[in-house]
Specification:
It is built from 11 helices and no strands. By secondary structure, the protein is an all-alpha fold. The N terminus is likely disordered.
Length: about 210
């Protein structure tokens, strides 16, 4: 009897404090998808948490539990894109790597949502240092990271010289397609990506 009375009672399970419930990943992904659609539809300036929540089919509180403002929501999306990055080409030749990079990038830039969102965020970046920093980080870790790998692999194979100006090389690789697809926004003629890869490879060999 005494033993039963002095035994340590079973500890009750601790309940998670209010507001500390696990965030559902499917809801988070639905909100992220809604942000892309909302940005494409109305732009950053007119985008609202209410509009994102309505498009995602959730309440505003579901958004605010994950991000405290639309700025933080967009910055998180830009950073996520940077982390995902582009696949690193490995065709065994400089021109082949460039061609594959341009094909993947061109498909991404042709997407109607990307075509609307990128120019809008660039315009917003001119007014908002936080967005500007996030975009620069995305470019460094995404496109430029892959382009840097292409240059380093070409140097290792002996296709490009040691000590090449990598900053200039990255500008040469990334600039023309971005200019054509995002700034001028004209369609690419047949054979353009192959010709661009060949011209870029020749230019890099001259650096």
């Amino acid at each position: 009897m005494l033993g039963r009375m002095t035994a340590s009672p079973e500890r009750p399970r601790r309940r998670a404090p209010a507001g500390a419930a696990v965030l559902r990943e499917d809801v988070t992904e639905a909100i992220r998808a809604a942000v892309f659609e909302e940005l494409a539809a109305v732009g950053y300036a007119r985008m609202s948490i209410e509009g994102v929540a309505r498009r995602a089919g959730v309440g505003k509180t579901a958004v605010y539990r994950r991000w405290k403002s639309k700025l933080h929501l967009v910055l998180d999306l830009v950073s996520a894109v940077a982390v995902q990055g582009l696949p690193a080409p490995d065709t065994g030749s400089l021109e082949g790597d460039l061609r594959l990079l341009y094909e993947v990038t061109s498909r991404a830039l042709r997407h109607p949502v990307a075509g609307q969102i990128i120019p809008d965020l660039q315009a917003e970046a001119a007014r908002n240092p936080e967005i500007a920093e996030a975009l620069q980080k995305a470019l460094r870790e995404g496109q430029h990271g892959v382009a840097s790998g292409i240059v380093q692999a070409a140097v290792a194979r002996g296709e490009l010289r040691e000590g090449i100006d990598e900053g200039l090389a990255l500008d040469l690789i990334s600039g023309p397609l971005y200019w054509r697809s995002v700034v001028v926004r004209t369609s690419l003629p047949k054979g353009y990506l192959g010709a661009l890869a060949g011209a870029t490879a020749a230019g890099l060999r001259g650096l």
